[in-house]
Amino acid sequence: MVLVRYLYWVLRIFINRFNKFYVPVASTMIKIIDKIILLIFIGFSGMLYAQNSQKYEGEFRTIHNEVGKASYQYYRSADDDAIIFHGPFSYQFYYLDSIRSRRVEEKLYQGSFRHDFKNGPWTFLHKNVALNIKGLQGLNLDASVTGIEAKLIANFADGVAVGQWTYDEQLIKDSKYASLYAKGTVQFRNGIQQGHFTFESNDPEHIASFGGKINDEGYFDGLWKLSYLSQGSRLVEERMYNNGFLIRLEIRDDA
Questions:
Q1: Which residue, 34, 78, 111, 146, is most buried by CB atoms nearer than 10 A?
Q2: 84, exposed or middle or buried, with CB in 10 Å at 0-12, 13-18, 19+?
């Protein structure tokens, strides 16, 4: 689907703009954005339509050949009889790696389509946890999970990114939400990032924070502040941009 490819390039172009001025923390941004991309890559098709709404519940295969369960409304294209998504959509995927490894993965995507385009709020949830088996309590398994839950809340208008998008990663420990690993917000208008952008990562392997303003054309503008670890030291950058061009850079050790 065009939307999926479009969102991928919108987000990657955003990262490339950040990376082209050699920002050490850009690698962290790319890793986080790649996680977001994995959440929204579902893959659908269809163009012309003939109204005859139907409902489907059952097995669903994504463009990555991942097979889960889906529930959605649709109609058939008058041009080639292709499925056109129209109405509420939900997809759930559950995978147990093996009894020995006890790795469990779950994905949940929920939102609505309007004539094959995402429309309104969407939630993309991805859990990756380890199953800790403690024993049996009668005939019930006594177990807990530890891992990470990533969540993206996005907004669309006929397939175009709009409004506020929020992303967070939550640590799960002993089946309870513990600390917040990462969080970020970005604003979209007609598919273009605008307004204030913020991101913070508390992941021990990628501790960083950055934020600033994106102008109406989608370029960094004004003061951007970044904080990250480099060779054991916490560095702070203050970057001044003018319509995407870096005009001043100050770096200090915040030890």
A1: 111
A2: buried
